[in-house]
Structure to design on (492 residues):
């Protein structure tokens, strides 16, 4: 584990203009944190430990990182006490945030001329930014939703390039480097990060076949597929990687090549494993389909979501390969992977959902999201209308969902004030069942042209979220990830 330091943080980082009492104390202290620490320690030092834990669990993570300097006891509580870590995560769900991850552009990429003036700029850095979601009352029943973005500019040379970011799970984010087949897990609240953990699977498989002169080198048939989740029983984060491997064997007599293909799974337990370990992705006994048939193809942007110990993803998405075809022949299912048991289930999508009348271009779901603890598929029905299909996959319903139970699905029609196409996505807010955030990705995924909307399911109203601080991103800043985010003290 290492801590990424040496950066400048805005005084409103994570807070915006909220009226949180702790924020006011810190912001009014003129950076004289030593005096604040002394005052706080004096006021709570005589309190029972349980009360101290309860108080600290309600403090935002950025302040807690500073409170570690108060005394050794507080340092222990904030970094190692499981009760404080769990309680803090529960309270953090009532303080929703947005997470922005924006990489610095690399030289040599397409359209370099558009960003040439920014590549060598000292102010145009890769950044991880957070925005607090604030709802300001207008005096009536309507509420005006605002979000405040504060930029964190990384100035340390050790910051890293990456090719993919998996969505945050309990405050942790997983970065993937497809060039080296490595991952790194980062806590956006505590700024702790693991070292890169590189997969040696290809090298090991090739070593096994070196003695067989008739077999050519193994190579990956597709880009490995990564998944990220949390085991709530053992309180462990895990990263999974699925490989499709291809071997070519020479037939000397006919001078031809015989190809064979097989799959392999790897897993990594964050904070425990120092290297990848091989696993068998065991199917549930009710599954009649091999998981290789329903996993996304190479270079897929198929999104995963996590809820209650299970990782979900749809095997269908809009993508085009070099032949201009899609994976439409595969069965329409949701893949549900249990993080603890490392087993998967396949949940068939009902026919009445698949055969709904809609444009052929929008036959597939435009997004998958979690709403109120339920996994949901978002379909575009009309230019300004989407339909949400939610699945109750709670305890006691998992096996019946695998058998095609239709009664656990519910639906909801949503009218939007903006045009809906494949650039529209959605995500829920932790701790809320009434709000959905819609993202309209702008031209070339530019942060400055990305719009966010808050939809209230009860009032059936949709309002644009005003973002204070987005102007700090340049027009050439391409978002890698924008999503809702919950602070946490979980270790990496």
């Amino acid at each position: 584990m290492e801590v990424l330091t040496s950066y400048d943080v805005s005084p409103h980082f994570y807070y915006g203009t909220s009226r949180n009492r702790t924020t006011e104390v810190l912001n009014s202290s003129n950076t004289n944190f030593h005096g604040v620490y002394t005052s706080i320690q004096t006021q709570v030092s005589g309190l029972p430990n349980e009360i101290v834990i309860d108080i600290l669990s309600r403090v935002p993570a950025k302040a807690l990182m500073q409170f570690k300097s108060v005394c050794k006891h507080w340092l222990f509580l904030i970094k190692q006490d499981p009760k404080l870590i769990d309680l803090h995560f529960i309270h953090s769900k009532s303080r929703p945030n947005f997470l922005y991850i924006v990489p610095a552009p690399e030289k040599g990429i397409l359209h370099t001329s558009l960003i040439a003036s920014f590549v060598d700029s000292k102010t145009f850095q890769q950044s991880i930014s957070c925005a607090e979601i604030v709802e300001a009352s207008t005096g009536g029943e309507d509420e005006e939703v605002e979000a405040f973005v504060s930029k964190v500019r990384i100035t340390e040379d050790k910051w890293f390039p990456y090719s993919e970011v998996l969505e945050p799970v309990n405050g942790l984010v997983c970065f993937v480097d497809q060039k080296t087949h490595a991952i790194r897990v980062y806590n956006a609240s505590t700024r702790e990060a693991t070292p890169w953990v590189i997969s040696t699977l290809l090298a090991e498989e090739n070593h096994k076949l070196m003695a067989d002169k008739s077999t050519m080198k193994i190579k990956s048939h597709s880009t490995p597929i990564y998944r990220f989740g949390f085991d709530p029983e053992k309180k462990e984060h895990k990263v999974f990687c699925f490989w499709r491997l291809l071997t070519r064997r020479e037939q000397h007599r006919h001078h031809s090549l015989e190809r064979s293909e097989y799959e392999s799974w790897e897993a990594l337990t964050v904070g425990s494993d120092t290297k990848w370990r091989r696993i068998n992705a065991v199917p549930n006994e009710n599954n009649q389909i091999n998981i290789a048939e329903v996993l996304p193809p190479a270079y897929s942007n198929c999104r995963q979501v996590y809820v209650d110990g299970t990782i979900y993803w749809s095997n269908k998405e809009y993508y085009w390969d070099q032949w201009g075809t899609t994976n439409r022949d595969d069965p329409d299912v949701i893949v549900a992977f249990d993080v603890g048991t490392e087993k998967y289930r396949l949940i068939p999508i009902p026919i009445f959902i698949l055969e709904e009348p809609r444009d052929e271009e929008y036959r597939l779901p435009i997004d998958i999201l979690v709403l109120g603890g339920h996994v949901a598929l978002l379909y575009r029905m009309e230019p300004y209308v989407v339909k949400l299909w939610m699945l109750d996959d709670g305890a006691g319903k998992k096996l019946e969902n695998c058998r095609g139970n239709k009664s656990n699905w519910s639906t909801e029609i949503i009218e939007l004030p903006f045009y809906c196409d494949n650039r529209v996505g959605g995500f829920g807010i932790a701790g809320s069942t009434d709000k959905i955030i819609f993202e309209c990705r702008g031209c070339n995924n530019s942060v400055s042209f990305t719009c966010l909307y808050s939809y209230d399911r009860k009032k059936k109203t949709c309002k644009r979220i005003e973002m204070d601080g987005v102007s700090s991103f340049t027009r050439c800043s391409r978002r890698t990830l924008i999503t809702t985010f919950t602070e946490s003290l979980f270790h990496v």
